[in-house]
Amino acid sequence: MQQIRSQVTERDGLFELEAGSDVLDSPRYNHDMAPTKVHERTWNKWHITALWVGMAICVPTYTLGGVLTAYFGLSVGEALLAILFANIIVLIPLTLNAFPGTKYGIPFPVLLRSSFGILGSNIPCLIRALVACGWFGIQTMFGGLAIHLFLGSVFDDWKALGGTGEVIGFMVFWALNLWVVIRGADSIKWLETLSAPLLVLVGVGLLVWAMPNVSMSELMAIPAKRPEGASVVSYFAAGLTAMVGFWATLSLNIPDFSRYAKSQKDQIVGQIIGLPLTMFLFASLGVVMTAASVKLVGVTVSDPVTLIGHIQSPVWVALAMALIIIATLSTNTAANIVSPTNDFQNVAPKIINRTKAVILTGLVGLALMAHELLKKLGLIVSDLSLETVYSNWLLGYSSLLGPIAGIMVVDYFLIKKQQLDLAGLYRDDVYPAWNWFGFIAFGVPVALTLLSLGSDAFSWFYSYGWFTGSVLGGLIYYGMSVMRPSPTAVKSAV
Question: What pLDDT sits at residue 265?
């Protein structure tokens, strides 16, 4: 006989939900969004480390140094320091927002129900999902190019397909990504675990190939592209903000992964080992490889897929492309599909299951890349480049997610005191449908950030957007919640 009321039990600091009919019949619940059972939390610190190695070693990471030197006016040394500091800084919201995922086994959208409301959580979820779908499309473009170059190195006739071959590669890689995620969290865990050592080997191999053709002293001596005599502080801070924005998305939906961690220690140690060093080393590799590319292939090439495509040996090209396909697949599935899959389910859990949400994610990502795909097929002519989208819209858009991160941390640690009503997060009778405190705390810094774009006096507010947004959003949310606490702010866990 099915129990009517849900029960919550605790095992060594980890909470588990035994769902009764009050939750199972709720429109806010489905099996994929349900809290993980304690026995399902099998990711140790090395699985978490492998997750970050798999996500951090990707084409966009490789190009970060070039983005900072070309667009933000930093020298090579300053760019690498900005990348290192940014990833140490972003560990703070990543680790803190991972705590409730590990403790309660809940994904990101369910956690947001505490700070934005049962229905209101859909707004920040869909904002996060759109960013992820954009990154999914861009990474799939790189993966499709790698498949095209791989097939071109094996079959001479394939090279003649040109842009059409790239589009075919895109669609093959697109389908492969969706297949991995539909198979579930275990498929992602083992993909990341198996790919991590292979990706490290790719980096070492590229470095060995490049080092005889580059002088590190000359590279570090290249002057920064900024006005002579200009202070480095403002340029460095803007670059630092952009690099924090690179993982601002994951700092929100990290509960999607930490819900599978064995313990808080495993998620903390795994993230500390996996993220900062991997990002710094692979971005450094990108700087070295880009500098060496002129001597290696005769032109400056800023992404590894195109650079390796210039190698004359078909065997090495085929091997390198196979590894890059694995690298991009491991990044894309974890970083860019899992979150929107959960976000779309949150809209209507009884209607949208994981498979439907994965397909919806794929279709949105495909639509966002339609312009670039039509260009490759020769059906349209446009000056808008993928690099423009990558360096401007997505990084800028990601920085607007700062307030959500600040609100989540304040809500869980300061307002709810790390106590959530686990069953109540899946019903309509505990938390409000809309928590307007969350929307005000989000809307004010976002509005100020947008207004600062037209003001020289307040341009710093945009330049430091992630920091100003997360701090201001958290402060506003805390102030309103303290002055007028909601009933759920003082509830203890069921």
Answer: 96
